Design the sequence.
């Protein structure tokens, strides 16, 4: 009898956010397939989980997935995890899930922490849906097409996307060409220094001009270099008094990096509430 592939969500920052079920599954499986064995190793050690870890990341998934499928067919169960959040959501894992499903192997989700869900819940969406666009591409042609798609979607829907710390400022500068509304940017979601920034994309890009050097909170230099994701959510924005003073303080003290999310303001011609 074949084993089960468990797609396990792990904390996006605060370790206490992991579910009891996720901890049990990570203990019971024969193997944990991890995007980053170092980070997953820290997580497993924290909860005294001795399960063996094998790497499965963007650069080896195509070759490693068939190996894992063989083990699943032999009856071994495998837990798939990413660095943070849910595997397959702008993270490796989709190839392994696809192969397992095609082979008739049971695939089971172990839901939990999600940067997208956390940011959306903090944004206070009044609209019934949103569009998730993942990371902006790197290649200019694909990147331009991505921003054009975002520009179309944000007219009718909330838009959610991710970005890496060292590229967030450039992305905000480009976003200013497509979005003329204020956005909300969350960073350090679920962490000690969780906070938000509000303003037009171009203005936020100016405030974050030194973001490449941000190393505050529990984000170290290596994690910045590893392109830790900042989720961006664009949705209806309530104009709140007193934001300018707080944003000025943040601009003067830029060493406070982390996760990010932005949100969309009222459509042109509609009053802010």
Sequence:
């Amino acid at each position: 009898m074949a084993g089960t592939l468990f797609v396990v969500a792990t904390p996006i920052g605060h370790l206490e956010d992991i579910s009891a079920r996720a901890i049990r599954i990570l203990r019971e499986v024969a193997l944990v397939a991890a995007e980053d064995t170092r980070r997953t190793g820290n997580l497993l050690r924290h909860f005294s989980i001795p399960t063996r870890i094998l790497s499965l990341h963007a650069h080896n998934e195509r070759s490693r997935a068939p190996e894992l499928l063989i083990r699943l067919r032999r009856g071994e169960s495998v837990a798939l995890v990413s660095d943070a959040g849910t595997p397959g959501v702008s993270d490796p894992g989709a190839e392994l899930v696809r192969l397992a499903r095609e082979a008739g192997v049971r695939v089971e989700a172990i839901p939990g922490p999600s940067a997208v869900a956390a940011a959306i819940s903090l944004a206070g969406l009044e609209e019934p849906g949103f569009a998730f666009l993942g990371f902006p591409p790197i290649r200019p042609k694909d990147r331009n097409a991505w921003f054009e798609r975002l520009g179309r979607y944000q007219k009718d829907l909330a838009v959610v996307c991710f970005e890496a710390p060292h590229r967030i400022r450039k992305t905000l500068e480009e976003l200013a060409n497509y979005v003329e509304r204020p956005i909300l940017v969350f960073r350090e979601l679920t962490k000690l220094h969780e906070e938000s920034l509000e303003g037009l994309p171009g203005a936020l890009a100016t405030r974050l001009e030194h973001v490449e050097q941000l190393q505050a909170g529990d984000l170290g230099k290596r994690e910045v270099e590893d392109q830790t994701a900042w989720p961006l959510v664009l949705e209806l924005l309530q104009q709140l008094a007193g934001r300018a003073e707080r944003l000025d303080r943040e601009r003067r003290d830029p060493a406070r990096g982390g996760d990010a999310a932005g949100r969309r303001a009222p459509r042109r011609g509609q009053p802010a509430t």
Notes: The CA atoms of residues 230 and 266 lie 23 Å apart. Strands lie at 4-8, 31-34, 53-55, 78-81, 106-110, 130-132, 158-163, 183-187, 195-199, 230-234.
